[in-house]
Amino acid sequence: MKKLTAILILISVTAYSQTVKFGQPSYQGTVVTLPVDFENIPPFGSISCKIWYDSDKYTLIDAVTDPTLLSIGWGMAGTDGTYLLYGWFSQGYSSAYSEHPFYFRLQQNKPGCSPLSWVVSPSDSFIGDIFSNEIPCTFENSTLCGQKVAPLPRAHWVNKYNILGQTY
Predict the structure, then answer these.
(1) How far are the Cα atoms of 52, 87, 107, 156 from residue 152, in angstroms, in the given order?
(2) CATH number among 3.40.50.1820, 2.60.40.680, 3.40.50.970, 1.10.287.130, domain 19-138
(3) 72 CA to centre of own chain
(4) Is the whole model's pTM more than 0.85, yes or no?
(5) Once rounded to an integer, what is the mean pLDDT over residues 79-88?
(6) Less packed terminus of the chain by CB within 10 Å, N or C?
(7) What are 6-19's pLDDT values in tens digits?
(8) How far are the Cα atoms of 32, 121, 160 from residue 137, in angstroms, in the given order?
(9) Which residues touch 104 (CB under 8 Å, ≥6 apart)?
(10) CA angle 8, 11, 12 (to 5 degrees)
């Protein structure tokens, strides 16, 4: 009887979720810089984002695009009522990769927090390859809380007295 020898090959496959989410905000006074992070997103050719936020608490100053992306395409940002809008597309058939493709700069108008909710539909929030095929990904919502701006220090008054003992 012949012995059969089988070689068992184990292949380990690890699936990483492709995620678009907000990074850690940074504060400079009442100006908040809010990065958008791509995790495990393959090279892309277009970005379209629509995010609901509390426009009473924050006002969009601008959006800054990764210089590498700007070298091969165009980026634009704006607001539509209570939505932050961002778009980028490459020239021709160029694709790009960036973990931090853009960030928003917002002015804090009122204290408190604002939900950040992606409007997820192919016409609103979409990441595409160079042929405009959708790259499936998950969009993670978040909350943006403003930094408390320290109040001005209280003035310490020193009473001054005149020769008669009266304060002035």
Answers:
(1) 33, 40, 19, 12
(2) 2.60.40.680
(3) 21
(4) no
(5) 94
(6) N
(7) 444 444 444 578 99
(8) 26, 12, 69
(9) 33, 34, 36, 60, 62, 63, 77, 84, 86
(10) 140
